[in-house]
Write a structure and sequence with these properties.
With 180 residues, the protein is mainly α. The protein is 71% helix and 7% strand. The protein has 8 helices and 3 strands. The chain has helices at residues 5-24, 29-40, 47-54, 58-71, 93-127, 130-133, 135-161, 166-173; strands at residues 45-46, 74-78, 85-89. The protein has a 3-stranded antiparallel beta sheet with strand order 1-3-2. Strand 2 (74-78) and strand 3 (85-89) form a beta hairpin. Helix 1 runs antiparallel to helix 2, helix 2 (29-40) packs across helix 4 and helix 5 (93-127) packs antiparallel against helix 7. It is elongated. The model has no long low-confidence stretch (mean pLDDT 91).
């Protein structure tokens, strides 16, 4: 099934933007583009469909599809009587948000918390009493410690919030989306 002409431009712009956004976040542009294509497609697509639509190589498509599966953002769909594998994106946008947040936390946030914790411990151990008497040491411990405290608070909020459904999240956030 091919998208109607009236939709092609909007789909392409969305795919391009999603790829640019992914790239800005340090995620390969193609990964964002493939995800976007699967998000806005009205049907599951094969690797060949994706290659043709995005003009990418088989190797690039295969690696990207594997990465999206590893993240949990897409899944295989098998059609009875067909040998090809089809792919579809998670369609629940709250779940997409939770998956991306979980992966970003695991890949970036958690290592930063570990690094900050280690740095504060190292400076306290190595500098000892200078933490009380040396202004540079005190400033470092205060600022890095404040950042660590903030990140630990956010980590706790994530732990409490990450497993709730959209209705509960919306209630907790008291968010009301109008006009969509």
């Amino acid at each position: 099934m091919t998208a109607p002409e009236c939709l092609i431009d909007a789909q392409q712009r969305f795919i391009r933007h999603w790829g640019e956004m992914a790239n800005a976040w340090g995620i390969p542009r193609t990964m964002g583009e493939v995800h976007a294509l699967l998000l806005v497609s009205g049907e599951s697509l094969t690797t060949d469909d994706i290659m043709e639509r995005l003009q990418i190589s088989r190797g690039n498509a295969s690696m990207t599809l594997r990465s999206l599966q590893d993240w949990g953002l897409i899944r295989n769909v098998h059609r009875l009587g067909e040998r090809k594998t089809y792919y579809e994106a998670e369609s629940d946008m709250w779940e997409v948000f939770r998956i991306v947040l979980r992966e970003r936390k695991r890949r970036e946030f958690d290592p930063t918390v570990r690094t900050l914790s280690a740095l504060v411990a190292q400076v306290r151990e190595v500098c000892g009493d200078e933490a009380e008497t040396n202004e540079d040491v005190a400033v470092f411990l205060w600022r890095v410690g404040a950042l660590l405290d903030l990140m630990l608070t956010l980590d706790e909020a994530y732990a409490r919030f990450a497993h709730v459904g959209w209705e509960e999240a919306e209630r907790l956030l008291e968010v009301e989306v109008e006009g969509l």
